[in-house]
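In the previous lecture we treated proteins in isolation. Real proteins rarely work alone, and many bind small molecules. This record shows how such a complex is specified: first the sequence, then the SMILES for guanosine-5'-diphosphate.
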Amino acid sequence: MGFFEKIKNGLSKTRTALSGLFAGEYEVDDEFYDELEERLILADLGVDIASRAVEQLRASAYEKMLVTPAKVRDALADILTDILNVGDSKLNIGTKPSVILVIGVNGVGKTTTIGKLANQLAEEGKRVLLCAADTFRAAAADQLEIWADRAGVEIVRQHEGADPASVVFDGITAAKARNVDVIICDTAGRLHNKANLMNELGKISRVIDRELPDANKEVLLVLDGTTGQNGLTQARQFQQIAGVTGIVLTKLDGTAKGGIVIAVADSLQIPVKYIGVGEGIDDLMPFQSREFVEALI
Ligand SMILES: Nc1nc2c(ncn2[C@@H]2O[C@H](COP(=O)(O)OP(=O)(O)O)[C@@H](O)[C@H]2O)c(=O)[nH]1
Ligand SMILES: [Mg+2]
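The predicted 3D structure, ligand included, written as tokens:
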């Protein structure tokens, strides 16, 4: 199944709400634009982006003399795609080894995403090593180990309560010895203890920088697509704590309305790199902005 088919199911609610408007025989007038703006807000785009997009759309429709809802829809697709194109959505993992640090609050899907990503990279022929730096609960490392087995990749872990930075240090040492291509680090996401989390992530980053000064590093922030505008608040906080280089939006197969993807990319100016579309090992898709917008509206 391609990118488009996978996300189409998940985003059907939003698409139905929007396409109803575009398929109709409406006049493209003030009322049409007001209704469109309202539906975009309901789709989780947020008030700011929805009103900005509609304003741009009005200008573009006027300039190009677009009078049918179908033409206006295509112009909106262009505008939303532009908003999403804030940088390279490919992973920057060219060096051997490279490091991917995965951060985000509890339950958003970090460990699951790591399992899926490890599997994809392994299928591309890369040697992958997972680092269980969520040491807060023993179950976290157990869960990561299950994913390592599924994906057929290696894992480095320590005991519950171990210093996460020391697990990362072990992982890097093992990776160097074993000729690993990509190290993926799982982390604990206790955002309610912000000072502690900042400390922990700072220490991990320093270990990576010291041990692998020339390596490519990705910091992927995982956000739950069903939490709507709440995800935006989390994203801003994590961006302050760690230099996020890419976003993963999970759970777009469920009740997510999808517009949050656009809101996050726009407000952080960081590219969305992957989206999660299920709990299975193959349910992680490299993000493609145009296809996403086409499925959304
Ligand atoms: N439907 C769906 N569930 C997901 C997705 N990604 C993760 N999950 C589920 O979300 C829950 C929390 O995931 P987990 O990886 O443990 O989150 P973590 O605490 O951030 O590591 C688990 O039940 C996962 O199966 C997704 O893309 N779609
Ligand atoms: Mg986890």
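Summary for your notes: The mean pLDDT is 92. The CA atoms of residues 70 and 233 lie 34 Å apart.
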